[in-house]
Design a protein that fits this description.
This protein is an alpha+beta fold and 270 residues long. The chain contains five helices and 18 strands.
Length: 270
């Protein structure tokens, strides 16, 4: 299979950063490193001993999909700078537009600014949080398997095309919030490889991952951020048209051997 897209989501629920090359350790660098927790649930999270928490306690696509789809964002790893814009239809980031927010996520003032901005946007108190070597991901599989929340989410573009054909709507693989989009597999065949290893045989070999679980889909992907008028109940559509698979699309992988992955690399199942 060929790698056709690499994406990092610095803040859980916000849009992704497109990447050409990634050094993958336990997961993508800074992927879901930050999250906006509801202040009424703040006591559930301990920065010194972080545990996996269900997405229902965060401001994210699962809890407020239409609101979160109304923002576009960019995160710069070197400076920890988050910039947020109002998302426009067919948004082109090269156009001139004044950011709604620009803040350093590693500074006290920056975190306060982000917390206040999104509290006002959702009309509920939320707080930006993070912890070292922790990912606010949607699955607890990594924690259960290895005591680490970090995973990589992989989506098969052929599976998305299969679902698109079944429902008569052209879906973008990015709607499913993957880290890695691959092509070249048969539709749905990724589910056969649960428990198998995935290795990079591209120009920089070394990365090895274990495919550990299917991705259950929730209402968080019912709104397409690139076309907010297109609201679909994806879990129901998956179960209706592909009952043999149920409401699943995508797989999670745990990193066994760190390494670099590039757009255009070939990944092989062993």
């Amino acid at each position: 299979m060929e790698v056709i897209s690499l994406r990092r989501y610095a803040v859980k629920g916000l849009s992704s950063d497109c990447m050409e090359s990634v050094y993958v350790d336990k997961g993508f660098p800074s992927d879901r490193k930050y999250a906006l927790i509801k202040k009424t649930k703040r006591s559930l999270f301990d920065e010194e001993n972080p545990k996996w928490l269900h997405k229902e306690i965060f401001l994210c696509a699962f809890t407020r999909n239409e609101l979160m789809a109304s923002f576009d964002s960019n995160f710069v790893e070197d400076t920890s700078e988050l910039t947020v814009w109002k998302r426009l239809e067919n948004y082109d980031r090269t156009r001139q537009q004044v950011p709604l927010l620009s803040a350093n996520l590693e500074s006290i003032e920056g975190r306060k600014e982000v917390s206040e901005f999104f509290s006002e946007a959702c009309r509920e108190p939320v707080q930006l949080i993070s912890a070292s070597n922790h990912q606010f991901g949607n699955t607890s599989k990594g924690m259960k398997a290895r005591g680490d929340t970090r995973t990589c989410h992989i989506v098969n573009a052929a599976t998305v095309r299969s679902l698109s054909a079944a429902i008569g709507v052209n879906l973008n693989p990015l709607r499913f919030r993957p880290n890695i989009v691959v092509d070249g597999l048969e539709p749905w065949s990724e589910f056969k490889y649960i428990g198998k290893n995935l290795v990079n045989q591209g120009k920089r070999e070394g990365l090895k991952m274990n495919i550990c679980a299917r991705t259950v889909r929730c209402d968080g992907i019912s709104v397409d951020p690139l076309n907010r008028s297109e609201i679909l109940n994806i879990p129901n559509l998956l179960s209706k048209h592909f009952p043999e698979h149920g409401p699943y699309l995508g797989v999670y992988a745990l990193v066994d051997t760190p390494g670099i992955i590039d757009i255009g690399d070939t990944l092989t199942i062993i």
